[in-house]
Input
Amino acid sequence: MAETSSETMEGLMNNFHAAIGKEALKEIMSNFSEEESIQGMFRTLWSVQEAHKHLTPKLVFSEKSDEEANRLRGLGNDFLIKRDLKQALETFTQSIMVASHPDIMSPEQRSGKAFETLSLCYARRSAALFELQLYDLCLLDIERANGCPKLKQELNERQKECLSLLKTSSKSQSSNSNSLEDKASIPKLVEPSSIIPCVSSSCKIAYMQEKGRHIIASKKINPGDVILVEKAYCSSLSLDRLATHCSTCLRECLAPLPCPYCTMVVFCSIKCQLEGLSRFHWLECNILSTICSLNMMASFSNCFKILERKSCSQWRTILQRLDDRNAKYSPEKRGVNDKEIFSSEDFDLFYSQVTNAEERPSGDLYVKCLIAFVLVKLLQLGGRLFRDEKGQALNPPEEDTLFLGQFLFSSLMKNSCNGFGIIEFQCTMSPFHIDKENIGSGIYPTFSLMNHSCNPSALPYFYGRYAVLRAARTLLEGEEITIGYCRGSYLQPLENRQIYLNNVYQFECACEACEENWPCYGELPSEIHVKCVLCSQAVSEKTLKCPDCAFEYTGEGTNEDERKTIRAWREAYAETKVANDSIQNITKALLAGTLTVKPDFEVIRKSVEILEKHISPPSPLLWDARDTLELYFHLEDSEKAT
Output
């Protein structure tokens, strides 16, 4: 079990500040400004002896305990008897997480010891899964129970009954599979770009000094088209999701496999377990309890997970090579790999991202540096990053430690303005309810090239650790593809958006919605406003008079030109009315769960295109259409993945 500690990141900071006093803190802070280098700022903090004393966390250990596993198994049995099946399943999973495990890397140990408590816990969880009619998962747990001698007959009978029920059941059991990353229908790019493989060939990278690198449409993109499908370069779950979601693929799992060595994380399948243990979790396994105790954010974990198994000397060589290569390229090509491809699987693209250090206030620079300091201390305590050629832990040279701190400091800044919260969409019926919850954080080097707009042209979706971007509206050649870093203009006022974007991303938004100070959704009139045929200004269905050119769309007109103009506006109005009614009806049907798939999407797409043609933003009709498009894909994808 994990020992508890009263230490938190905030507590470490407070203790450090109390120990050095206000004057010393002011002196340290004077070294944190845009004039100072990242290396210089970290060296300043590292040179303070009190920092080493007060910013070094106490390790909190996570240990297996058969005694605790047996207690939890007994508690799970009580829930099972009371028919509280959900609680029983959760409690049995907890018992499996804390039970002693064989060494997954040691076949001799796995075959040479029964691990009776673990087998009993799996056997009892199989009973809960059977009662929940999750027969495929039940069979997996029966196999994991490894022929538990005490319950062998019970398990054999349950296995036979599961197999029989699966043969006769009309319900597809594959939907209950634990390995959801394999089962879910993650959207595919119709034609990937040859230069940026995780985006559509309809896109390309552009560069402007005031915008930096960004993505634009290279040809027409239709509403709903898939623009990007990117697997996170690195990802971490929020602390409250570690026991419910796979640490590798980030999917929720009902009957997970735990880490054999700690009590903190779970995996949805053997495949994800092996990937996690051989890569990122190897580095964090013996310090994750301390990270949880410190209440550190998922984005902090991402920064040291980048390191994985390379040594400091290897990273120094890699960074020098990347610096030399980037110096040869123009800004829009920085981040390409050896084949001159922007690959999100390579470190190159993440490394080329900006830190915005010059724009950050000194307080933000100081806090990021302090967090990097604590992360270095954690990695030192863990003893798995600093190793010799034989894999033995060692005390690294001072320069290696300083290099690591500077690397983490820079990564924290890059992640804060380029990282993404990973959102899980949850939908329940009867009664209908939708939730969007942040379950973790991911580094998506290509996705982060998308600039912000308070009226974004694309909508993000997440499938575990995969990010998918779909067009929210029609995009023509040369138009920028934008996403929302915060709640858009129709949900919150200009001042709130600007404060948030300045504080978090260090820029002042100058999108159309901000420049024109668009009203929020509730402040806009509900009637239909169709563009004036003569000047494209919005004409209300109530006044029928253009507020700009004063043309009146009443009567039949006094000459043929006027009559033609009036007819054109009325036809546009009729099309708009039908499209808006379709959107409203489809939304109601989506919420009721009564729609089929493809025919309805084509109606949505056509309706969006008609509304875009005849209405100018800001308009509640356009936002309703975008919300319907977003809801449609969330519900469709939720149906495929559950």
In short: Residues 560-592 form the longest helix (33 residues).
